Amino acid sequence: MSVHDTAEPNRRDFLYIATGAVGAVGAIAAVWPFIDQMNPDAATLALAEIDVDVSQVAEGQSITAKWRGKPVFIRQRTAKEVEEAKAVELGELKDPIARNANLAADAPATDVNRSAAAEGTDAAAKEQWLVMIGVCTHLGCIPLGQSGPYNGWFCPCHGSAYDTAGRIRQGPAPENMAIPPFKFTTDTNIRIG
Amino acid sequence: MKKLLPALLAAGLAFAPAAFAQDGKGPNENSASEQAAAGQDPAAEEAEEGHAETPHYPLKEPEELDWSFAGPFGHWDLAQLQRGLKVYKEVCSACHGMKLVAFRNLEALGYSEEQVKAFAAEYTVQDGPNGDGEMFDRPGIPSDYFPSPFPNPQAAAAANNGAAPPDFSLLAKARAAERGFPTFLFDLLTQYQQGGPDYIHALITGYGQEPSPAVEKSIQPGTYYNPYFMSAPALAMPPPISDGQVEYADGAPQTVDQYSRDVAAFMMWAAEPHLVERKATGFVTMIFLIVFAGLLYVVKGRVWAGTPH
Amino acid sequence: MSGHSSYVPSKGVMQWLDARLPLPRLFYDSFVAYPVPRNLNYAYTFGGILALFLGVQILTGIVLAMHYAANSAIAFDSVEKIMRDVNWGWLLRYMHANGASFFFIAVYVHIFRGLYYGSYKAPREVLWILGVIIFLLMMATAFMGYVLPWGQMSFWGATVITNFFTAFPLIGDPIHQLLLGGFAVDNATLNRFFSLHYLLPFMIAGVVILHVWALHVTGQTNPTGVEVKSSKDTVPFTPHATIKDGFAMVVFLALFAYMVFYLPNYLGHPDNYVEANPLKTPSHIVPEWYFLPFYAMLRAITFNIGPIDSKLGGVLVMFGSILVLFFLPWLDTSRIRSTAFRPMYKIFFWILVADCVFLGWLGSKPPEGVYPALALAGTIYYFGHFLIVLPVLGLVETPKRLPGSITEAVLARNGGGGTPAGAAAAPDTKG
């Protein structure tokens, strides 16, 4: 059949290859909007800040604020808890990095670097304050406060234990709990975000 | 792809001057003013004959203006949008909300993040409930939306003689005078999508004309005659702005005509913030599809060569 | 899908799979070796274009549903959130909205091509009827989709269309309330319309599979209307039809892109950018352009016909205008398939096309003055075409001489030689 002869694809034919390549590029470009639409939208990405009044948080108490859909633990630690945290050698830590969004990415996980004192203003007086995203770095559950073997936080889902500075000490979680960007705008007000 | 986008935009904008040169000289303007003139006469005659049937509004067709965002390479005139925002803020926002536009969107008007923050902070936004369960007021932040001047449509209507001022967010797309046959077919080629801004400009500048006696009879008390209004001879909104009311820092004329152009352009941006991105993406897409179609046509010729059909 | 298979699995994996689940064979027989008449023109590419657009609509629809909220309190704002905040949301939504229009453009070309070349005649009655069912499902899907943005036209369109059912005596009102889930269009209505709008396209896809199956059993018609007689009359689907369909699809996509990127609101109505208000009807409500001819027929009946009041009459006429298409294979008495060989019917065909355009124009006009009377005339002609012209013309018309075969017709036209592709097809693209 004569038809069949001309239809036989000639793989060396530049025209066919070029057409196929152009079509493939177009198809890939057309797919992108369908994938990218699943990314967070502009409203979600818009920098959201919250102000939290901490005047009612006495020593040894905590409150939980909601920021970007996640809980943020704000705790004024007792002197004993701070001492416990300071006593830990960096070498003992499972994750030696501070995970503090206000510091450099490789800052060591000392107690000062974990606490609000690291954030600059009025350093010494703020070391009692701990502000961190209350999400277990294992698989996203919310740990229970003041419990577990290190008297810090304990995640009931899979048994990760954090110390009084929110650092991972035992269990499957890989990292210390994250510190969000925040600052004290006054002595009793924290702006997160 | 995100990095590609600015490149696409630049490609689209690079062609803009050529497009404008054409648009300015094209037959558009002439035909537009002819239509406007032609639109006047039948409407006036109809009104004078009395009401054989329901009169058709608007009584006059809006004038077609030159907009920077018209046509395939349309782009925003940022200075104009900033002036429009100023007019909106100082005049229109007393009655009209714009609830779908957030302060963060204003960065598209050429403002820096800091300027947007400062702008947002000038507004008071209700937030809450706080720890005591109370709603409280605070200064606006970029993620807030423009607050509406009235708490709900009922309050807006009650404060304005029963006619609630419409929200501005989509008004430039929600208003347009009907395009008759055959104009609507030509619109396919001229890509005319500026019915909204043309209408808004015509409406704001259309006050203060003398109605014909027949029309005057049908004007409700408490409304203002405006032959460009699309659903009646007169509307509840009084003339909203006068010459010199808003101060322009960039030397643009401080006239009602200029104010209405600027605020109409601004409203088009508010209604269709991705317009420029859309047209620039379209340019690349059209080029691609035409090239691809051409290639396919040649391949088709090869495949069918020797097969009479 | 048709008859015996010529598939010879080449590689090991294909052979293995073919022996267990003959998917490769099905694909090969349906889209590679399937013989198509060699003389098809571009009007025959719209089936493929329709398949493409069903895909476009389903894909864009699925991703839009990830962001849309089917609740009357926030539906309007959620669509605006898609337009403003969602990445590429404006593109996806404009594609979906204009895609519906282009779907209908393609389906109307496809239907009129079927009418012109007698694609409904034996042995393709079931193929035709499946097509009419797809058309009905498309209309239902498009109508419910238009309600979802919850603008003024959405709301009042839904109110008017669902009120059709109240025209039927006794059962009308209960059915109306059942459809709405209330006494007026409201949140319950919006929710069920969203659910059904998501479901129906997959039902369309199912019927499309039956439609293609039926097509592959009988084979395509062709511009001569003479059935395929030998393998000389056909070419294999791939590459001949594939490349031609592909070219037509890309040209159609270019027109689509022109509207999406440059005139996205041209086919829409400004009032749909005003949020639904159950207490205020817009001054002039019109359906989307693709429903306008049917809308004109609905409004053409302004008088009672015996025991049938004008309201029920209008509804019956409107439904009847589609119902009559189901009986088309038996209404046309002519033994000649292609209109190309029916000189008188050719005239009536184009009058019918003009009548449908005329009705569409009337559908966009307010129901006052001379318009209802013109609409009535157009409606009467529409039914007259199917119920009088088609049956009578087949008995009285003298057709032109038919060619002996497709090949004979092709060679006669080409003077026996091989002309470049496309040159011969171009004049036939009408219809």
From TrEMBL, chain A:
Belongs to the Rieske iron-sulfur protein family. It comes from Jiella sonneratiae. It is found in: Cell membrane. Its main location: membrane. The Rieske protein is a high potential 2Fe-2S protein. The gene is petA. Component of the ubiquinol-cytochrome c reductase complex (complex III or cytochrome b-c1 complex), which is a respiratory chain that generates an electrochemical potential coupled to ATP synthesis. Binds 1 [2Fe-2S] cluster per subunit. This is Ubiquinol-cytochrome c reductase iron-sulfur subunit. It is an enzyme of class 7 (translocase). The main subunits of complex b-c1 are: cytochrome b, cytochrome c1 and the Rieske protein. Residues 99-191 form the Rieske domain. The chain crosses the membrane at residues 14-35. NCBIfam families: Rieske_proteo, TAT_signal_seq.
Automatic annotation (TrEMBL), chain B:
The keyword Calcium does not apply. Residues 49-58 have a biased composition (Basic and acidic residues). Its main location: membrane. Keywords: Heme, Iron, Membrane, Metal-binding, Signal, Transmembrane, Transmembrane helix. It is found in: Membrane. The chain crosses the membrane at residues 280-299. Residues 32-42 have a biased composition (Low complexity). It comes from the Bacteria. InterPro entries: Cyt_c-like_dom, Cyt_c-like_dom_sf, Cyt_c1. Residues 79-271 form the Cytochrome c domain. Pfam families: Cytochrom_C1 (PF02167). Residues 1-21 form the signal peptide. Residues 22-58 are annotated as: Disordered. This is Cytochrome c1.
UniProtKB/TrEMBL annotation, chain C:
Pfam families: Cytochrom_B_C, Cytochrome_B. This is Cytochrome b. The lineage of its organism: Bacteria, Pseudomonadati, Pseudomonadota, Alphaproteobacteria, Hyphomicrobiales. Component of the ubiquinol-cytochrome c reductase complex (complex III or cytochrome b-c1 complex), which is a respiratory chain that generates an electrochemical potential coupled to ATP synthesis. Keywords: Electron transport, Heme, Iron, Membrane, Metal-binding, Respiratory chain, Transmembrane, Transmembrane helix, Transport. It is found in: Membrane. Gene3D superfamilies: Cytochrome Bc1 Complex, Chain C. Its cofactor is heme b. The main subunits of complex b-c1 are: cytochrome b, cytochrome c1 and the Rieske protein. Belongs to the cytochrome b family. PROSITE patterns: CYTB_CTER, CYTB_NTER. It comes from the Bacteria. Residues 13-224 form the Cytochrome b/b6 N-terminal region profile domain. The keyword Membrane applies. PANTHER family: CYTOCHROME B. The chain crosses the membrane at residues 42-70, 90-115, 127-148, 154-172, 193-214, 246-268, 312-331, 343-362, 374-396. The keyword Membrane applies. Its main location: membrane. Binds 2 heme groups non-covalently. Residues 227-404 form the Cytochrome b/b6 C-terminal region profile domain. It is a multi-pass membrane protein.
